[in-house]
Amino acid sequence: MQAAVVRESGRIEFGSYDDPTPRDGEVVVELRAAALNRRDLGVVAGRYGEFPTPFVPGSDGAGVRRDTGEEVVVFPSLAWGEREDHPGPNFRILGGADDGTFAELIAVPRENVFPRPRRFSWQEAAALPLGGLTAYRALFTRGRVTADDTVLLLGAGSGVTLLAVQLATQAGARVVVTSSSEEKIERAVAVGADRGVLYTEGGWQDEIGEVDVVVDSVGSTWPDSLRCLRGGGRLVVFGATGGTQVELDARSFYLGQHSILGTTMGSPRDFAALLRAVDNGYWCPVIDSLHPLAEVEGALARLESPEHQGKVVLEVSA
Fold first, then answer.
1. What phi, psi does 110 have (nearest 5°)?
2. What are the tens digits of pLDDT across the range 13-47?
3. Which domains, and CATH codes, for the chain?
4. To 10 degrees, the CA torsion angle through 184, 187, 192, 197?
5. Stated pTM of the model
6. Which residues, 6+ apart, have CB-to-CB distance to 262 below 8 Å?
């Protein structure tokens, strides 16, 4: 098969790669499209550890199950485990070290394929799994967002944030976003956000006002996020793109009776709930750009560009 392969840390190349051999309990999917996530940038660069090479990166994909002909979307959480509040010790994310979706074929456990949402194109279905799952669990499983809540989402241009805007809006919540770009705020408003604020302007936290839930993937912004919360509000965090070290004021935190909730990816139950939300909704993932699988390096460069908005998608086959 043809695939995008990491043969040494920091270098990805397109070419021939052995077809997957399914183990007991696995199925082979002929991929039609795959999507990129920020995780892929780190995996290729070796920032998530030195995975044994060669391997195929990529967590998001949709295609046809070879044994049954079913059209499926790939669930990227491997070996989540039995608990809903936390993954088990063998949990990992598809696409490093396990071969991922930047290929014509992939073998995954049978329980990791779900029916493709019928109203989504192949490209939209491929753009959903990791970002949609992360957004769903952050908002509802961990953040307990309801129609009575106002939600602040940091970083209006990312694929996860735009999916979170649409999911929260579908649930009836009011959504506020931040960005350094008016254009990205306009895009977020176009898919359901009430309004947005430029975080490059001083005092943006006061402009936000008090919210019930903040979803923060930046990490270094926790103090700002807590400042925007009402008493008893929830801060849900799943990333550290702005840094991993944070200093908080303990007194204002406990006097505010705030909660800080960590989250990552999601369980099979979360993914099934996400797909029900898709079936009951009218929205689609925002696609930034489409690239042939052979041009994976250009797709990764686009993802790393600050101009990108939404999901960068690879077209694998017709």
1. -55, -35
2. 999 999 999 999 999 999 999 999 999 999 999 98
3. 2-128+285-315 (3.90.180.10), 133-262 (3.90.180.10)
4. 30
5. 0.96
6. 142, 236, 237, 238
